[in-house]
């Protein structure tokens, strides 16, 4: 518990101290955000707002987790787990790709950075490295960092092992690429209003912290009552999820409307990559659809808008993603953001309840 508190305090201090420093640096370099011209006209006032705030979010998560790991090492907890390092790799690597995209935007002084193919190639390479390492890197617990299959909670309902080792690895790499691409783009689409992505991510990571903590308390070989999970080092995953939630919480001080800094693709891709990696490491890839329900809605609204327009030349929404639709209906930006936070909180509560109900059912408690 002390290690968890250390992670929380260090992450919060890092984000509170580091964000103003980054704002000054970005101001001096004139690295301001460029706004899409076809969006709500009120957003044009945000042109020039410092971006790349995701750099501080990433640093806060890393330093918070590292401080916690150092404390545990001092009291005899051993070296950091491979699972934690892999999850952090997913966050940092996707954040680095987002940073390149942000940097290209400010250099070209327009709202387009990397090409679609360039970003997709980068995501493919990084997700493939993560996927292969997650099946190969040894862990302290002895359980693998990931399992080659698709899981709702814990056991795969569709295992790739039926096809032999080589083919199963290839299928797993494809699956991980899909998850990484989907979640990074989902958070990126959500990052369209001041505080929307940061607040929603804070709530989502808090949900995953609960899931990972419950798994750590009911880990196999601990001998505790009820169903036990074969998950690799979930306590480390808990600390990372909590540090991410706290970093997003602190970032909201500067990112709430009117924002003095944006997280940019650096932050949205990093948070999306971290969310995907946590779902893989906790064996809850499909439960993540509930816990990250708001991100799913944002993504589906964009898919529906584009698909319907190509088929019928008519738009379903006034503008996609869907948060812009409500803005154009006359809702204030703050009202959209707060109500979307509430929706995400409901999704997280439902996701956690489903997770607990699954544990209670496996433990024989649900109908006892």
Structure description:
A hairpin with a 4-residue loop joins strand 1 and strand 2. The chain is an all-alpha fold. The protein has a two-stranded antiparallel sheet. The chain contains 12 helices and 2 strands. It is globular. The model has no long low-confidence stretch (mean pLDDT 89). Helix 5 crosses helix 8 and helix 5 packs across helix 10. It has one domain.
In short:
With 368 residues, this protein is mainly alpha-helical.
Topology overview:
Blueprint (H helix, E strand, L loop, with lengths): L1 H28 L24 H21 L7 H27 L7 H21 L12 E3 L4 E4 L5 H26 L5 H22 L16 H22 L8 H18 L6 H4 L1 H20 L9 H7 L4 H30 L6
Antiparallel strand pairs: 1-2
Question: What features would you highlight for this structure?
Answer:
mainly alpha, two-stranded antiparallel ribbon, 12 helices, 67% helix
**What is the string of SSEs from the N terminus onward?**
HHHHEEHHHHHHHH
Shape: globular
Number of domains: 1
Sheet of most strands: 2 strands, antiparallel
Strand content: under 5%
